[in-house]
Write a structure and sequence with these properties.
alpha/beta, 14 helices, elongated, single chain, seven-stranded mixed β-sheet, 27 strands, about 25% helix, disordered N terminus
Length: about 575
């Protein structure tokens, strides 16, 4: 592949190669200047960030060129599909910020597809094969060895029609027969070697119930559905490149059935392929993700460690950050493995602009301001977001007894330790400058309490109060705070590319992908925040309340840290090897 392949031409650096192809079609007047795309998920699982890339392309192209993007559920396999998946797909697309023109289902076209299949049989283009799936696979040959024709390939048309109708009865046995297209068993493209068009499935369909017992395969249903709906650009991922000739061939047959002659002004969907989104330390296979859910390896499809959109939403990712990340990696004609740290950087950058700053202490130790009057309290003003003045302020209560982070105190501190240590001053954020005067230990030598004195003239916001000290610590009042549990997440898998690892993917799971820290303290204002509200725990990271959280059992998920500590961790691990 040349270095320039898949890249925008000079002067078109801001558009993808897909958009260039769309603009070319518009310039040539194809499809009457009309743009129509579709997003066609199969409702057999929840959407993940890989689907988000396709969503951004399908909806984005339609939006950019004043077209329409429809949503079509590819519901041709009732044994794996249900309405739960349909509803969550709708929610995820709306959450990402996109609107569809219409909602369709492949099942809307079952009658049309059935009639088309009968036409294929009647015109000698399809036949019933009663071989086993293993026999069919073996006879297909290899990319360098021609296939062997099925012994049923030259069946009489009348017999094929009778058997095809039998396929769609309750008495038909699953796996006993299939309908195959009669194409070319010696074609170097394996997909052209008499592909299967219909198979028998007796599982009730989530929309049509038990009306059908024979269901179309994806390759037969997909292109026809595009054609029925008037899709101009069928944008999909690179694994469908070898499927494209078959996509076009079935449309050729359909146009022949309809008596259409081909010319430059005739409508024909154009399939365009781009690279999939692959992330380090995760898998995108819905089969594997489903296994993780069903086997209890994760708490559900919306587990914050999952690459699903609902999992990312629960963890605290914003839809804007996901779209920003997808835009940053772009669309090409070759697959790549994207570093999950790039996604986290996009999340961090976006949340910095929208997250409300609050105080939380995750590893608490008591701080007593000994010269502050007992029973007294003050309301200190805290800026909600220094990046956005319109977010305003809230108050945080200051009292004699506080909680601070245990790591913010050191008994024998090195010279460049600018946090709390005996005899030195620090500022308590939004409050006063205090000096450590002592501390208390238990029998095991653990610090149980720190004592300090405050300077009454140093209150934040007072004229002349901003004398310089090198350290600023966050805190919460011991009398005006709430206990909370904090869930800290790490990579779901312990290897960089689990999809390429030959071991069972279950063996590659990171046993430390989630840790729960109990008995943390958060300020009153933070305790009232709900799922969907973005928070920054000052000096710690970005967090969001979990849907499991209740007023009596507060739970917060860590979305991402303030800095990328993972890269340093990996570098350190590599240095020790």
């Amino acid at each position: 592949m040349s270095e320039k392949e898949g890249r925008p031409e000079e002067g078109k650096k801001n558009i993808s190669f897909v958009e260039q192809m769309v603009e070319q079609d518009l310039a040539e007047g194809k499809n009457g200047g009309r743009i129509q795309t579709r997003f066609p998920p199969e409702p057999n699982g929840y959407l993940h960030i890989g689907h988000a890339k396709a969503i951004c392309m399908d909806f984005g192209v339609a939006e950019k060129y004043n077209g329409v993007c429809n949503l079509r559920f590819d519901d041709t396999n009732p044994s794996k599909e249900n309405n739960e998946y349909v509803e969550n797909i709708l929610n995820d697309i709306k959450w990402l910020g996109f609107k569809w023109g219409n909602i369709y289902y492949a099942s809307d076209y079952f009658e049309k597809l059935w009639d088309f299949a009968i036409w294929m049989i009647e015109n000698g283009h399809a036949y019933i094969d009663e071989q086993t799936s293993e026999q069919i696979a073996e006879q297909k040959g290899t990319p360098t060895t021609p296939g062997v024709p099925s012994p049923y390939r030259d069946r009489l048309i009348k017999e094929n029609l009778e058997l095809f109708k039998k396929m769609n009865t309750p008495e038909a046995v699953e796996g006993s027969m299939v309908l195959r297209a009669k194409l070319d068993m010696s074609n170097p493209n394996m997909h052209f070697r008499d592909p299967i068009m219909y198979r028998i499935i007796h599982t009730p369909h989530h929309r049509t119930g038990t009306k059908w017992h024979a269901y179309p395969m994806y390759d037969f249903a997909h292109g026809q559905s595009d054609y029925f709906e008037g899709v101009t650009h069928s944008i999909c991922t690179l694994e469908f490149v070898p499927h494209r000739p078959l996509y076009d061939k079935f449309i050729d047959f359909l146009k022949e059935k309809n008596g259409e002659t081909e010319n430059i002004n005739d409508f024909r969907p154009r399939q365009i392929e781009f690279n999939r989104l692959n992330l380090t330390y995760t898998v995108m296979s819905k089969r594997k993700l489903l296994a993780l859910v069903q086997e209890g390896k994760v708490s559900g499809w919306d587990d914050p460690r999952m690459p699903t959109l609902c999992g990312m939403r629960r963890r605290g990712y914003s839809p804007e950050s996901i779209r920003r990340f997808i835009d940053s990696i772009g669309y090409t004609k070759f697959d790549a493995l994207n570093d999950v740290a790039l996604l986290e950087a996009a999340v961090r950058e976006d949340l910095n602009k929208r997250a409300i700053r609050v105080s939380a202490v995750i590893n608490p130790v008591k701080l007593v301001i000994t010269n502050y009057p007992e029973g007294k309290s003050e309301e200190m003003e805290a800026i909600n977001n220094p990046e956005n003045e319109a977010d305003g302020t809230h108050t945080i209560t200051f009292t004699r007894n506080l909680w601070i982070e245990r790591d913010d105190f050191m008994e024998d501190a090195p010279k460049k330790f600018f946090r709390m240590t005996p005899g030195k001053e620090v500022r308590l954020k939004n409050a006063y400058i205090v000096k450590c005067t002592g501390f208390t230990k238990d029998a095991n030598g653990n610090i149980t309490e720190i004592q300090a004195e405050y300077d009454p003239t140093s209150k934040s916001g007072l004229e002349g109060a901003n004398r310089k000290v090198k350290g600023t610590l966050h805190w919460v009042s011991a009398e005006h705070c709430h206990k909370a549990s904090i869930r800290i997440y790490d990579r779901l898998f312990s290897v960089e590319n689990p999809a390429a690892d030959e071991r069972d993917f279950r063996e590659l799971l990171n046993p430390d992908s989630m840790n729960v820290i109990e008995n943390c303290y958060i300020e009153d204002y933070a305790a009232g925040k709900k799922p969907g509200e973005y928070l920054q725990f000052q000096r710690i990271g970005y967090f969001m309340a979990d849907p499991d959280s209740t007023p009596d059992n507060l739970i917060f998920n860590k979305t991402v840290g303030l800095k990328d500590t993972w890269s340093k961790k990996v570098s350190g691990d590599n240095r020790t090897k």
